[in-house]
Specification:
The protein has helices at residues 10-22, 66-82, 84-92, 155-173, 176-179, 185-188, 196-207, 347-351; strands spanning 41-42, 136-137, 142-143, 227-229, 235-244, 250-264, 272-285, 299-308, 337-338, 361-362. The chain has 365 residues and is an alpha/beta fold.
Length: 365
């Protein structure tokens, strides 16, 4: 994006300054993002194996069917010995036939249940052994509330704002081209081009990514020379909420967790890992009579990102997941454990006291 696209025109800026200096009531204001750019990249860690629970079958009455029952029981035990993974899937909900969860309308009060450590992901079942197996595919896992007239917007306008907010999430976190490293042009087109601090940040982040200008704060991107995406499904779970913000704006908050299955770039490898990203993005759909903006775009209010298995101490601008077969030694903060699937706490609570240079340990992947 050019410098001209990232700033306000000279004429508009001079008009803004004249009106502001004159104290004109209702003069449009230049929006600015109040971004808390804190990220935590955790090392992938498989949960410790759980012990088998001893099953005590109901006591059978002796009779003509006793030998048949014994034969069936022996056959079942033999099947478990030959294919324990499939049996584990049936009884712990990790198989492909899992019942989808109901939409997340409010924050849950506890983390999802822990799956058996024996359920490792495969190329055919990349979400196996993960709570995400029951989550929605793509935007289907993101709950959009019913629209109502709010602030300066009518019910119809709020509905459009909610749809465009979800479009931004799809364009920045689900678009296959963006995931493979292409510029997120559709997503950036939805951000207010008059929001100079954000446009400058984005231009720097894609030109020279660093800890202070990291595109991964808003966009999901993978280093394709190192990993490849497994399948064409990204599992999601989260919700969109809104309220009246400053100057009558409609302030939309999105809180979504994305689960990306990946394998080594080499086609011969069948080991699967998962990168899990939870993002909170707050957008302001501003009244153009009060804020300098472009129709159909929003101003960024704040954005937070918490990433599991995206590359510890990584400032390349791409996620670089680790695999179990090549896990590195633990680093600073490795004794701090976090459940990446836990959505029962707010992002503020989850990231309180976090250091963007720390590497923790995920309790599951």
């Amino acid at each position: 994006m050019s410098k001209g696209e990232a700033s306000i025109s000279d004429e508009e800026w001079e008009r803004f300054q004249r009106e502001a200096e004159a104290g004109t009531q209702g003069a449009p204001e230049e929006p600015s993002a109040r971004a808390r750019m804190v990220t935590r990249r955790l090392r992938e860690e498989t949960a410790r194996p759980e012990g088998w629970r001893t099953h005590q079958p109901a006591r059978q009455r002796r009779g003509k069917g006793w030998y048949v029952v014994a034969l069936l029981l022996a056959a079942g035990l033999l099947f478990m010995a030959l294919d324990p993974g499939r049996v584990t899937d049936w009884f712990s909900g990790g198989g492909s036939g899992d019942t989808p969860l109901a939409a997340e309308s409010v924050r849950p009060d506890q983390p999802p249940a822990t799956e058996s450590a024996a359920q490792q992901p495969t190329l055919q079942q990349p979400f196996r052994g993960s709570p995400a197996a029951r989550w929605g595919d793509g935007t289907a896992g993101i709950t959009v509330p019913e629209a109502r007239a709010t602030g300066w917007m009518s019910e119809t306008q709020v509905s459009q704002a909610l749809d465009r907010s979800r479009d931004f999430l799809a364009a920045s976190n689900l678009d296959s081209g963006v995931l493979l490293g292409q510029p997120p042009e559709k997503a950036i087109a939805l951000i207010n081009p008059k929001q100079k601090d954000v446009q400058d940040y984005l231009a720097t982040a894609f030109r020279a990514p660093s800890k202070d200008a990291d595109p991964l704060m808003l966009f999901s991107r993978f280093a394709t020379e190192k990993v490849r995406l497994v399948g064409d499904v990204v599992k999601t779970r989260g919700r969109i909420t809104y309220r009246e913000g400053k100057r009558g704006a409609v302030e939309v908050t999105t809180d979504v967790t994305y689960v990306y299955p990946v394998a080594h770039a080499a086609e011969r490898s069948d080991e699967v890992a998962r990168t899990i990203v939870r993002r909170e993005v707050v957008m302001s759909w501003d009244d153009p009579a009060k804020v300098i903006t472009e129709p159909g775009t929003f101003s960024l209010v704040s954005y937070k990102s918490d990433t599991t298995n995206g590359g510890c101490d990584n400032d390349t601008g791409f996620y670089v997941p680790e695999f179990r077969s090549a896990r590195t030694a633990t680093g600073p903060g490795a004794d701090r454990e976090v459940d990446p699937y836990d959505r029962s706490t707010s992002m503020n609570a989850r990231m309180q006291g976090a250091d963007d240079t720390e590497c923790g340990t995920a309790t599951r992947s």
